[in-house]
Write a structure and sequence with these properties.
The protein is mainly beta. It has one domain. Helix content is about 5%, strand content about 50%. A three-stranded antiparallel sheet has the order 4-1-6, with no helix packed on it. Strands 3-2-5 form a three-stranded antiparallel sheet, with no helix packed on it.
């Protein structure tokens, strides 16, 4: 990927782990956003979801996220999560 890329496109794959299903059943979410910018809020307390998932289940979703001038982005989840980012392209 070139150092002047403005954004990346790819797939997010999450697996929150089976222990979270027992401790906190229901749905979870993960948010990806441009590093150095404010955390994007959908409500006063919840982030804008890049992917929703059932706790304890593997989920995947396509995403596009802007990059900082240093080529980075941030990720946050409402539960402990294993994350795989598969980059398939970029914007200049």
């Amino acid at each position: 990927m070139p150092s002047n890329a403005l954004a990346i496109v790819g797939h997010l794959h999450v697996h929150p782990g089976t222990e979270n299903l027992k401790l906190k059943p229901g749905f979870g979410y993960l948010t990806a956003w441009k590093r150095g910018s404010a955390y994007p809020l959908a409500t006063p307390t919840l982030g804008i979801a890049s992917i929703y998932f059932l706790r304890g289940a593997v989920a995947s979703s396509q995403f596009t996220v802007a990059l900082s001038t240093s080529g980075q982005f941030s990720v946050a989840s409402d539960t402990s999560t294993h994350l795989l980012v598969d980059i398939t392209g970029y914007y200049l």
